[in-house]
Amino acid sequence: MTLDAEDSKIITLARSARARNGSAEGAAVRDETGRTYAATNVELDSLVLSALQVATAMAISSGATALEAAALVSEGGPGEADEAVVRELGGALLVAGPDGALRG
Question: N or C of the chain: less Cβ packing under 10 Å?
Fold first, then answer.
């Protein structure tokens, strides 16, 4: 599968966030205006969020109403909540390994 430049960009942003924080997951989303948001998963005793949930929350709290695309970089795959948020807000969900290679 050949990615366009904008989809490659959000995978790169997700990989960079993951590497920078040494996190299990990195995610990036692109909203309906083209703005991008990158995040990692949060694992505290009192709060557990996937990277995609954090990136989506950042987009929504900044005024986004839809997603054009979302990227998740992880050893594993997306959880049900990740898939549900992308369905709700639209857009494609790109899942890649830590090396940036697309899966699924």
Answer: N
